[in-house]
Predict the 3D structure of the following.
Amino acid sequence: MFKQILGKLPRKPSIKSPQNENDMNIERIFSSMNMDSTGLDLNYITKITSSYVKPSTMTSNQGNKLGQMVDFAAYEALPSFRDIPTSERQNLFIKKLNMCCVVFDFSVPLKNLKEKDKKRQTLLELVDYISSVNSKFNEVQMHEITKMIAANLFRTLPSSNLDTKLPDVYDPEDEEPATEPSWPHLQIVYEFLLRFIASPETDPKLAKRYIDHSFILRLLDLFDSEDQRERDYLKTILHRIYGKFMVHRSFIRKAIGNIFYTFIFETEKHNGIAEFLEILGSIINGFALPLKEEHKVFLVKALIPLHKPKCVSMYHQQLSYCITQFVEKDIKLADSVILGLLKYWPVTNSSKEINFISELEEVLEVTQAAEFQRCMVPLFHQIAHCLSSSHFQVAERTLLLWNNDHIRNLITQNRKVILPIILPALEKSTRSHWNQAVQSLTRNVSKIFSEADQPLFDECLFRFREDQIKEKHRRDKLDSAWKRLEKVATSKGNSVAASPN
């Protein structure tokens, strides 16, 4: 009876548990690196990453465990490239890459300091080696290189602070820049990747098997990092990849477009939009003429809608440059761009409106007469609204459009259509705007129209005054009607009050 009861109780785990066996396994891996007949141990880092943690899905707790795993005296620096014969350097290169695949936890600054420093020195040696190598990288080397890069760079980014930092007007200069704790290692890995991509010894036909679509997508995900230093490296690296791997160009553009769609229509939160637009500005500048239809679709469906998010001020300068590049490439796109701006024109955000007016000036500066005429009616209805704005900077920035010779000529040539639209706004600002500078600029603009075509100006002014008189009569009529209604209501109220119950 007692034996049967005791047999059902859970037994104490043995000393040789699976966890302890794993610990012994990793210690054995670090203490002795057994190489095959070629001197390469291609399964070395696979054993570590597959048995313990995948860097791309590493959490902070897993990082802590990994820091404990590599805290062995056996994690020692390998000999320098200078200390061994040239014939053995390729094998040592592989060993150093494998060694650098171990990712340390930087959330605890004082943890594994010795091992972190050894890895940093090894990474620096790898950067020097890849810069001075004088033979083509073979397939095995490229596999190990991309594996080390993926182990260190591709990770889950912390949640963005933009979740709580997106008011209607967001100034990024007001916030302290966020920094990546593991940057002492990440910076060198990024430098290594940059030199690998730029190296003449990297054959694009072979490297495209490893710098593939999956690699590029994971690289694009890192643009959401809050660390500006990381985004700057990513910007340079992606631009080099775009230039070197022609086979990936269309895919990169589409992938960036998909990120834009998610940002515009779903999240409105991303840290790397400005960097993407900087890259695109250079790409657009290199487009061949005539523009492909896919490029025009990208402009209409991805770039123009980027004016919609509230945080557009964070990347507006780069966006404006991209838009202008498109119009310079194909002037027939000018009216589509202007109508797109009008579609997303801000209603209550004055600082955003000022940015839109500045961008509008850049687009109009490269717009020709035919495209201008196709969009001038809705455009100048909006400009008239801006001229009447009580925000003096909006009104002032709009009036300064007439200082641009090309824009002034376009307006003068089409004054018979434009002047009747904006003259009421000009007259109202001249008479009643609270800001003296706006009043002065408005008088100057009116003077330009009167000097260009005095009869037209007088005719429009006469119509405006007639309309004002009609408006005054209409208001007087409404006022008298309301007064009659008040009298009727008052008399009925008095008669009800005087009547007996």
